[in-house]
Amino acid sequence: MKTLQRTLAIVKPDAVANNATGDILATIEANGFRILGMKMLHISKDEAEGFYAVHAGKPFFDSLTDFMSSGMVVVLALEKDDAIKAWRDLMGPTNPASAAEGTIRKKWGSSIERNATHGSDAEDTARFELSYFFAGYQLVH
Ligand code: ADP
Ligand code: MG
Prior knowledge:
Blueprint: E1 4-11, H1 13-17, H2 21-30, E2 34-41, H3 45-51, H4 61-68, E3 73-81, H5 83-91, H6 104-108, E4 117-119, H7 123-133
The structure holds adenosine-5'-diphosphate and magnesium ion.
């Protein structure tokens, strides 16, 4: 059975700088996601480290958090049946070089780091990530 779920999406600084925000938002809506919340932010290095705390200690952590705090991002709360998997399928895999035609990372990603978008990977991480950027009263209800 399908379950209505929420997930946290981010249009990363590379995609915002490449003027891909509108295209990515249109793709999100065309694929049946409901946008419950949306903010354009320039997060600090410290805020990026808190968001990606699960990756602390990995070799790419310092570069990733520099990148994520290097420019504006758009954070989105999305809702759909099985939204977590549906959004990850629409993004494509972490490395755009392995991504299929029709995915967002294929179209807009340029490297394994600069891969245009973020998506939560499970229900518990979605809860943490949604609450990192949105208070409940800030979402459509
Ligand atoms: P995803 O975003 O697909 O869930 P991960 O959670 O594994 O991927 O990694 C978080 C982010 O860290 C990736 O989206 C990417 O920007 C960056 N990243 C992951 N693996 C690498 C790597 N090997 N080298 C550089 N950056 C990476
Ligand atoms: Mg991840």
